[in-house]
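Before a computer can learn anything about folding, someone has to put a protein's shape into writing. The outcome of that step, for a single protein, is printed below:
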Amino acid sequence: MANKFKILKHQLPTFAWAIFILVLCTSSSGGFITQKLFGIPTDKLGHAFIFSVLVYFLMLGFIKQWRFSFLLNKIRIISLIIAVAYAIIIELIQHYFTVDRMADYWDVIADIVGAILGLAMFHTVYGDLKFLDRDETM
């Protein structure tokens, strides 16, 4: 039971950020007018940013709980799958449960790009994760 709380503790920033994304993506747009930056709509840049942070937090949590995770060597793909699934869920919530928000497949694509950027950002900071292959008997 204590191990479950340790695992949860390491993912608290992820859960907090996921709730922030949910609130941000389902609240009223307030007549937001999309601008373009370098030819890319700023809302898509925002989607990419928030999902890059989500993947970064996911991977950071998985790394911190590495002793408890049997999926350590697959954390990149697991983090990416979680982020993509969450992006799709957010768009479905927007489509079915909000009044002034609409589902947009371009948002999902921006979220996927952001998730990949989050993987790259994590790799830039932590490298190839070979330090995790250390012997546990030490």
Observations:
- The longest helix spans residues 42-64.
- Residues 2-25+40-133 form one domain.
- The chain has a mean pLDDT of 82.
- The chain has one domain: 2-25+40-133.
